[in-house]
């Protein structure tokens, strides 16, 4: 990095926010003239601010499409890490990891599955004593890469239903389900679900500990092979292995519901959205050095194990 003091501003993904909070001080310790400021504002805000030039790094769980890059000349996807998303629920008395798939979750978010003892949920969970609690779907109220990932999973597993409408994106028109709640950020999703019996919520895996501490259940999700898995190191690595050779030069690739029989179905690259034109050479040099460090040293277990 440059020898003069440089500040790099990051904002965006609340899933990546805990990692940037670890990376910033560690990079500053190695390069004391560099300060990294981090904010968890949601992937949509991260992309928008990177495009506007108000931050150096827009953190996002969602990649920029070809259309996005055409609209914002100079923006690039830089894959920083592989992450995953969990599905949580608030069902006191249910200790099992319930099995859910995209089709059932789509019906829950569309309001056609209204209670947790619905036959479609029961069919996936034989022998589990399911309560008749009303289903309360939680979704993100801010533009979110987590919404992008979750709705892509629903679209892939329910192509004729959710896939046609509302489809997927960082923001979607969630069906108007009685009692449904919108929450801001992953932290808001954890808190909202913990305070709402019957809730179902999609939450970035970096909030796994917080969700567990608040007593939320964690679902096993059905993949394209019909197997049900929790998002652990083995199932995430198995899913990712099938995509390494397929990642294009612009790094924009969906890894949702991949072909690995033992792969977890909602994994993704976490991206730094950056502009290839920075305000000066010192900033550009420092940004390049930080991104290289994040992809190498920053991906070691000493950092990653703290955010799972």
TrEMBL record:
GO terms for biological process: phosphate ion transmembrane transport. The keyword Cell membrane applies. GO terms for cellular component: ATP-binding cassette (ABC) transporter complex. One of its GO terms (molecular function) is phosphate ion binding. Transmembrane segments: none annotated. InterPro entries: ABC_phos-bd_PstS (IPR005673), PBP_domain (IPR024370), Phosphate-bind_PstS (IPR050962). Keywords: Cell membrane, Lipoprotein, Membrane, Palmitate, Phosphate transport, Signal, Transport. Residues 3-297 form the PBP domain. The keyword Lipoprotein applies. This is Periplasmic phosphate-binding lipoprotein. It comes from Mycobacterium tuberculosis. The lineage of its organism: Bacteria, Bacillati, Actinomycetota, Actinomycetes, Mycobacteriales.
């Amino acid at each position: 990095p440059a020898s003069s003091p440089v500040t790099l501003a990051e904002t965006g993904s609340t899933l990546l926010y805990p990692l940037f909070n670890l990376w910033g001080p560690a990079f500053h310790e190695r390069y004391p003239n560099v300060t990294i400021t981090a904010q968890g504002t949601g992937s949509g805000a991260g992309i928008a601010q990177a495009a506007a030039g108000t931050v150096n790094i827009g953190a996002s769980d969602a990649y920029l499409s070809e259309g996005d890059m055409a609209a914002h000349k100079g923006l690039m996807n830089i894959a920083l890490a592989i992450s995953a998303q969990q599905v949580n629920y608030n069902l006191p008395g249910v200790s099992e990891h319930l099995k859910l798939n995209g089709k059932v979750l789509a019906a829950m978010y569309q309001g056609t599955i209204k209670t947790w003892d619905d036959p479609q949920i029961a069919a996936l969970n034989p022998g589990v004593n399911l309560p008749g609690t009303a289903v309360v779907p939680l979704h993100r109220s801010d533009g979110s890469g987590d919404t992008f990932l979750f709705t892509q999973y629903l679209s892939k597993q329910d192509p004729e239903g959710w896939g046609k409408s509302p489809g997927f994106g960082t923001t979607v028109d969630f069906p108007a389900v009685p009692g449904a709640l919108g929450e801001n950020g992953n932290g808001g999703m954890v808190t909202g679900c913990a305070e709402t019996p019957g809730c179902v919520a999609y939450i970035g895996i970096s909030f796994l500990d917080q969700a567990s501490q608040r007593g939320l259940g964690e679902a096993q999700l059905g993949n394209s092979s019909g197997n049900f898995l929790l998002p652990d190191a083995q199932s995430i690595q198995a899913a990712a292995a099938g995509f390494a050779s397929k990642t294009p030069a612009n790094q924009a690739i969906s890894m949702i519901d991949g072909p690995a029989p033992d792969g977890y179905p909602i994994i993704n690259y976490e991206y730094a959205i950056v502009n290839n034109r920075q305000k000066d050479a010192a900033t550009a040099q420092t940004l390049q050095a930080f991104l290289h460090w994040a992809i190498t040293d920053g991906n070691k277990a000493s950092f990653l194990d703290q955010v799972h």
